[in-house]
């Protein structure tokens, strides 16, 4: 009977030792087996693994792609227009041995702090280059700038055992103190453009008016010339008709001209004439012979 409790105790200790000797690595993880702080084994494949109980420990690291948002920083491009930029990165732990050696027990938190420093330094370096302006940063070229930041950061992050998969610029905007000055400059530029447009419009309108005035003068001059020619031709034709009529019958022509003079002079509108009764004007009114 005394052997049974001993057997149970031995069985319990064996179970505890067996339980402490095995560990499971998930497919989303990598693991390091540590003995007194030294790396003894690397477990990157999922499954059941063995360790020495009470002597060796297991540290797990996430093998998935992780996200990191960097704090908002201020950059100064070559045109001296300060910008606030925030970004995010995607990374994964590529080498758990290097990662452990770089951050020790600090883990992901310490690694991300260092990674933020690397990203911020590369953001300032790339976006502050001599060939980069604020317009470049906010244009479609920002994608290529993000790739340059990623490639430069990846080189430095390799010492941490981290592989940076992607870097993106989330937002790019002006500091609050610069907004009003920028808006004022934009307003001034638009007002100058509007003034230029108005000046060009006034110049074009003046040209159109001058051309219209010149066309009116030319049309009136041409019309007056044509009218004078027509009147001259009519007068010439009238004189020719008079000449022909006079040549055909001078007496009748003289009689016709006298009647026309009576019609115009005695038109019944209270015409007053002071003239001698013996005047030739009345020859056809007093002659019995009609002359």
From TrEMBL:
Pfam families: Band_7 (PF01145)
Record-level Gene Ontology MF annotations: peptidase activity
Keywords per UniProt: Coiled coil, Hydrolase, Membrane, Protease, Transmembrane, Transmembrane helix
Annotated ranges, domain Band: 20-186
CDD domains membership: SPFH_HflC
Cell compartments where the protein resides: Membrane
Any GO BP: proteolysis
Record function comment: HflC and HflK could regulate a protease.
Record's protein name: Protein HflC
Organism: Celeribacter baekdonensis
């Amino acid at each position: 009977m005394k052997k049974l409790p001993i057997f149970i105790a031995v069985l319990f200790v064996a179970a505890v030792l067996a339980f402490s000797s095995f560990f499971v690595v998930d497919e989303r993880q990598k693991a390091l087996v540590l003995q007194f702080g030294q790396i003894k084994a690397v477990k990157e494949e999922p499954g059941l693994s063995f360790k020495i109980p009470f002597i060796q420990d297991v540290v797990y690291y996430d093998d998935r792609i992780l996200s990191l948002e960097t704090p908002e920083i201020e950059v100064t491009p070559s045109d001296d227009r300060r910008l606030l930029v925030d970004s995010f990165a995607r990374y994964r732990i590529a080498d758990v041995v290097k990662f452990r050696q770089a951050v020790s027990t600090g883990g992901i938190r310490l690694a991300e702090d260092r990674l933020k420093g690397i990203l911020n330094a590369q953001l300032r370096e790339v976006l502050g280059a001599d060939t980069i302006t604020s317009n470049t940063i906010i244009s479609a070229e920002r994608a290529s700038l993000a790739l340059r930041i990623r490639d430069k950061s990846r080189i430095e992050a390799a010492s941490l055992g981290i592989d940076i998969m992607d870097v993106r610029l989330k937002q790019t905007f002006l500091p609050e103190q610069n907004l009003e000055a920028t808006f004022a400059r934009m307003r001034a530029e638009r007002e100058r453009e509007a003034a230029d447009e108005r000046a060009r419009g006034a110049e074009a309108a003046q040209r159109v008016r001058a051309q219209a005035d010149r066309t009116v003068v030319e049309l009136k001059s041409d019309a007056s010339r044509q009218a004078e020619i027509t009147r001259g031709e009519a007068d010439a034709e009238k004189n020719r008709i008079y000449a022909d009529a006079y040549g055909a019958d001078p007496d009748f022509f003289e009689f016709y001209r006298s009647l026309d003079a009576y019609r115009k002079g005695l038109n019944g509108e209270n015409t007053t004439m002071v003239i001698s009764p013996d005047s030739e004007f009345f020859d056809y009114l007093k002659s019995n012979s009609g002359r």
